[in-house]
């Protein structure tokens, strides 16, 4: 059974990992609300959730699928 010190250590490690991941996120904000692939407007919810996004969800999904197949 984990004691309080072990749990505190895990919480600290997790917090540091989250902070590191956030620091590595792009700091840029895409100002163009249009998808660079298809030209459709990127939905506001996506722009708020991922301000650096330059593609709509559909085009980003296609990009990711292409990347996975290319890596094989």
TrEMBL record:
Name the InterPro entries for this protein.
Znf_C4-type_bac, Znf_DskA_TraR, Znf_DskA_TraR_CS
A single GO BP: positive regulation of secondary metabolite biosynthetic process
Q: Which domain of life is it from?
A: Bacteria
Gene Ontology molecular function: zinc ion binding
- Positions of dksA C4-type zinc fingers: 35-59
Pfam families xref list:
zf-dskA_traR
Q: Which UniProt keywords apply?
A: Metal-binding, Zinc, Zinc-finger
- Domain called Zinc finger DksA/TraR C4-type: residue spans: 34-65
Protein name stated in the entry: TraR/DksA family transcriptional regulator
